[in-house]
Specification:
By secondary structure, the protein is an alpha/beta fold. It is 39% helix and 12% strand. Strand 2, helix 4 (106-113) and strand 3 form a beta-alpha-beta unit. It comes from Microbacterium halimionae.
Length: 503
């Protein structure tokens, strides 16, 4: 049974379709793994008691000859930012403790319709505000590579669950790097789709113009399989793109077997200097670029002069939108309520928000409210939106001469728990390489590129493509993954010293 957790989602799906293993067996193996290791990792906030029942239903339907989807019966972890009818949806916050949604997020509904088996809800920074999963109201998640390190954030729970073989697939959300940065820190694959390419309906909003839901997996093909399930137009999301999408799994297969890197023009951003990156991260990135050149790619320096202002603009736009989105948690309509005997509605609201929100959420609400206030709107929020436009123009200019842009995914490997908690600015800078893609609405993927020499922890390389060119990322990512795995003699995650030695 334990061998099942080591399979990729594609491999497991193949065995399920061939009748070599049942969904109940696969789900049982992953539930046993969660019981064995999650006490120390804390990737899950809630484990789905009905998972085996859902798996048994898939097995019955398959035995009856029903035509099922390509990933039917494969277990799935779900970031707790996505609402579900049968499990609590807290977004990592006390203010939503025990909240049961009357509907499923569209991506969750799509996953159920595809036959995926929800294993449970994964831990996250409160309302997705953080880069380490230490801002969860329910305690931090630990990195399976080293338990005293963070798994990244805000979606560290999903990344840790996949890295620790607790789930072959997971859903995450990415507002400024919350899928890609944890992938970098846990040796997994994370994809931020084009903005509007995946429905946000039922994703508890942080910053509506930046949020996007995407896959967290151990291989590029697995990410493509999950992306195929969740992509598509949703009339309930006004920002949802209407066009049909190609198969991202097919694009990954094409990349893995084809010579797609030959002649590929890969842009390297001049204004993203190595000086700000940990030596092992910079070295891994240079080695990856050398590998690309060996495989026939052309490395081209591109200029993106406004990238350096991306973090500052982001931390005005995001708090402004968050302060508006989080106003709904007011003690009146749903969620937590702190009673104030003899107090007014305003007194109860203030007491509830004070007790229910953590320090980082309060910090960003205050910052966002200030940025939107009379007399400061144009100077702060308005100026940040202008910078956003300039960054979009930088990308447009760069993609006129290159096919993809490559960067290190994050400046450092996984840092120690507690190391950056008292330094918000340093925490914010973890997303310096990932934020520009969210500001521009373009897709990005992070894949493992090696281990840093100084600490042996995973490093990721990020590829970015123009809007709507997600399939290009899957072709390039799968080709790069295949080349690196061949060089290493096996996948990077197979060398992770995870608990229980699932290798």
């Amino acid at each position: 049974m334990s061998d099942l957790i080591k399979l990729s989602a594609a491999e497991l799906a193949g065995k399920l379709a061939a009748g070599e293993v049942s969904s109940v067996e696969a789900t049982t193996a992953h539930l046993e793994r969660i019981r064995a290791v999650d006490g120390e990792i804390h990737a899950f906030l809630h484990v789905n008691e009905a998972a085996l029942e859902a798996a048994a239903d898939i097995d019955r339907r398959r035995a009856a000859g029903e035509k099922l989807g390509p990933v039917a019966g494969v277990p799935l972890a779900i970031k707790d930012v996505l609402v579900t009818t049968d499990m609590p949806s807290t977004s990592g916050s006390r203010i939503l403790e025990g909240y049961m949604s009357p509907f499923d997020a569209t991506v969750v509904a799509n996953a159920r319709a595809a036959g995926l088996i929800p294993l449970g809800k994964t831990n996250m920074d409160e309302f997705a505000m953080g880069s380490s999963t230490e801002h969860s109201a329910y305690g931090p998640t630990h990195n399976p590579w080293h338990l005293d390190r963070v798994p990244g954030g805000s979606g560290g729970g999903s990344a840790a669950a996949v890295a620790a073989f607790e789930a072959p697939l997971a859903l995450g959300s990415d507002t400024g790097g919350s899928i890609r940065q944890p992938a970098h820190m846990t040796g997994t694959v994370g994809v931020k789709p084009t903005y509007g390419g995946v429905s946000r309906y039922g994703a508890i909003a942080l910053a509506s113009s930046l949020d996007q839901v995407g896959p967290v997996t151990r291989t590029v093909l697995d990410a493509g399989l999950l992306h195929d399930v969740i992509a598509g137009h949703d009339v309930r999301d006004s920002t949802s793109l209407v066009e049909a999408w190609p198969s991202f799994a097919d694009a990954a297969r094409e990349g893995a077997r084809g010579d797609v890197l030959k002649g590929l023009r890969v842009g390297v951003v001049r204004e993203l200097p190595e000086a700000g990156f940990q030596p092992g991260v910079a070295s891994s990135f240079r080695n990856a670029l050398n590998k690309l050149e060996q495989l026939g790619a052309e490395i081209v320096e591109v200029s993106a002069p406004h990238f350096e202002h991306g973090v500052a603009a982001y931390y005005l736009i995001l708090p402004a939108e968050a302060s508006s989105n989080l106003a709904k948690f007011d003690s009146v309509r749903f969620g937590m309520r702190v009673d104030v005997p003899g107090g007014t509605v305003e007194d109860v609201m203030a007491a509830t928000r004070d007790a229910g929100f953590g320090d980082e959420v309060k910090r960003r609400i205050i910052l966002g409210t200030y940025a939107l206030s009379a007399g400061y709107y144009d100077a702060y929020y308005g100026s940040a939106q202008k910078v956003r436009t300039l960054i979009q123009q930088d990308f447009d200019a760069a993609f006129s001469s290159v096919d993809v842009i490559a960067t290190p995914t994050a400046p450092t490997t996984a840092f120690r728990l507690g190391e950056q908690l008292e330094d918000p600015l340093q925490m914010y800078l973890n997303d310096v390489a990932t934020i520009p893609a969210n500001l521009a609405g373009i897709p990005g993927i992070s894949i493992p590129s090696g281990l840093a020499e100084e600490d042996g922890l995973p490093v990721g390389i990020q590829f970015l493509a123009p809007a709507r060119e997600d399939a290009r990322l899957y072709r390039v990512g799968a080709a790069m993954e295949a080349a690196l795995v061949a060089e290493w003699g096996g996948p990077l995650w197979d060398r992770a010293p995870v608990l229980g030695g699932a290798r």
